[in-house]
From TrEMBL:
The lineage of its organism: Eukaryota, Viridiplantae, Streptophyta, Embryophyta, Tracheophyta. Residues 298-707 form the Glycosyl hydrolase family 13 catalytic domain. This is isoamylase. It comes from Opuntia streptacantha. GO terms for molecular function: isoamylase activity. Belongs to the glycosyl hydrolase 13 family. Its EC number is 3.2.1.68. Keywords: Chloroplast, Hydrolase, Plastid, Transit peptide. It catalyses: Hydrolysis of (1->6)-alpha-D-glucosidic branch linkages in glycogen, amylopectin and their beta-limit dextrins.
Amino acid sequence: LIFNLPTSVTPPKGDGASLILLQLRLASNNFFRYFQCQYRYIVDTRAVLSSPQHLLKMLHSTYLNSPSGLALLNRHRPSLSSVAAIRLQSSMKGSGSSDQLVTTTRGCIGHISASAYGHGIQENVLEVEASRAPETTESFKILPGQAHPLGVSEVENGINFAIFSRHATTVTLCLLLPGSDWTKGKVEDGKMVELRLDPDINRTGDIWHICIKDLPRSGVVYGYRMDGPKDWQKGDRFDSSIVLIDPYAKFIEGRRFFGDTNHKLSKFLGTYDFDSPTFDWGDDKHPNIPEKDLIIYEMNVRAFTIDESSGLDPDIRGSYLGLIEKIPHLLELGVNAVELLPVFEFDEMEFQRFPNPRDHMINTWGYSTVNFFAPMSRYASCGGGPIKASQEFKRMVKALHNAGIEVILDVVYNHTNEGDDENPYTTSFRGIDNKVYYMVDFSNGGKFMNFSGCGNTLNCNHPVVMELVLDSLRYWVTEYHVDGFRFDLASVLCRGTDGSPLNAPPLVRAIAKDPVLSKCKIIAEPWDCGGLYLVGQFPNWDRWAEWNGMYRDDMRMFIKGDCGMKGAFATRVAGSADLYKVNQRKPYHSINFVIAHDGFTLYDLVSYNVKHNEANGEGGRDGSNDNHSWNCGFEGETTDANVISLRSQQMKNFHLALMISQGTPMMLMGDEYGHTRFGNNNSYGHDSVINNFQWKQLEAKKGDHFRFFSEVIKFRATHDIFKHENFLDKKDVTWHEDNWGNSESKFLAFTLHGEHGGDIYLAFNAHEYSVQVPIPSPPQNKQWFRVVDTSLKSPDDFVSEGVPGIKGTYSVAPYSSILFEAK
């Protein structure tokens, strides 16, 4: 046991027990100042109980070098001789030293009250189960600490811990020291040291804090126990039995390997690292690609390379390093920005915590955030853990930047992993201060508001939560050099603390005006699951871009041949001025997409009329029913050559329309070879071929499908005519149409006018028959060259230098599109 030498001893009530309680009372401040001592001794319980004088003798021989110390202890010799179990109480009165020696015995439970450093009464309790005490110990001193910064920081006096909780009445810092076995991702409470914070000393406002001297600079796993009111109807959810993650933890330790079913109930806690050298960014800079020039590739880090067909070493498949190895593919495709599905720490095994219809699934998309600062640790190579994950994430960003590719993160600030009251998964915010971090309906028994569809809704416009979000975003920009963010269900960010919509939401405005974040790409998914649909109306301060859901729907309906969609199709390819021509907004504030991670893949869009989500375990109730898809004559896989050919043609039509539209195009990983999820339009829970990139299929499609997709992307990149800074006017486009009101018409042709006569003629035919179309005269001293005809087989479907001789009329085949360039 290790303790401070007492100046008085109070015998405990009751007789001996295997648990020795040492409570250290210091009666003299002056004595405390000049006489601090440590005593390391593994006490034999039976010897102490039978002969307290034995312990006294050891104290005499070891520490009583001071005459005053000897006198103080001798004064209380009778008390020692009468105890059956020792209870040494200490208190310190008056102002004096701010240090308190705290010692822990590794392998034993320690409950230490860290209190009254500068004034008042201090009562420190160290409980140690003597029969379990090993021969090695750790010792350190504690200080009051400081309130900022939140999280863990290294200060001059040691390691500082600070956490917010307005409504907690008891806060206990829990430490798991280096050497604990985390290979199983379990917290063994028997090895955890617990420091209870005194609200009079360790609390400043709503921030609880403590500083610890001599604590290791890395390898410590930590969390908090919180206790407080238990009134659920008022939104309280305190549970001191749970060790909670610090919301400001920069690394999360837990399960080391993705989808490891042997440790599916793994505990997650924070850790820190002040030992590793600063990452060498070299001359890394943000590519700063103008928004009008972006071509975004939405992708999943793990799914991109986890399949064996990637050909990568198994140790790096599905990792940040694996993505680095496949950067050449991104360059060959021609994209210049990746939008990564969530890479904040999440628990992929959350569906398997208890029996339920989804307990066979693994959360591979990651829309279930555990912590907003820590990179997903199981995307590290070789099960390397959180510190390695952080380093390798930085290597990935640096490599992408070196290739001229920006990194945009899909971020989830609308809800967390903690679920609802029916199926709670308390890991952090819920147990720290539930009614601050979440929207709570106090008029409905303190239940969670659920605008996310996932059981809870983050209280984003509460000042404390807002600052958390801003701190997190800035951290990813400054620490990890990311270039932008796409905000999942961003309409949640536009709700007040009571859930009502706000015209000028503080968080959205703060992001737009922030000196760091305003320079980033900031993209909203402008809807939520509570019906707040804000496409074209998202509060933006002329900075926010939006996923244009109306673009997706109108493009799908026109190209598959729905009636009455020609006008809407023209509006979308021209930049959606009906939505975005407001104030200083630009065409590139429309993120144009036909396909995204949720919904059908491009192949499935032309292969299935209805969703096939049986594998999800929800009886087909999940996923959207409004897919605007067409299977081209047969549902699912087929060997019919005509159906296969038509599907290929339709995929090319969609891709061409996307890449010639004004605005910012985004495509989905795998569409460049025609990836299928077999009709599943909500595949978030499948760590399998359903989601995983199939590299052998890519190789098989390199000569036709992939070639077309890549060439069209590069054609866009080299032609500014598709990337107008401002919305089109009459001088920029000629619509070859005089019958806009004809709902039966499914054909549209138009000419984009470029500088120096570099015009582009385009026609899209969604009829089931050919259309013989008159071709307008080319600009003076120019002639038309056919670059694209999706009805032709590869390589004639795309000819980069163009095929000359286009005059008079041209037959546009059924369900096809063409592009001519004037040269």
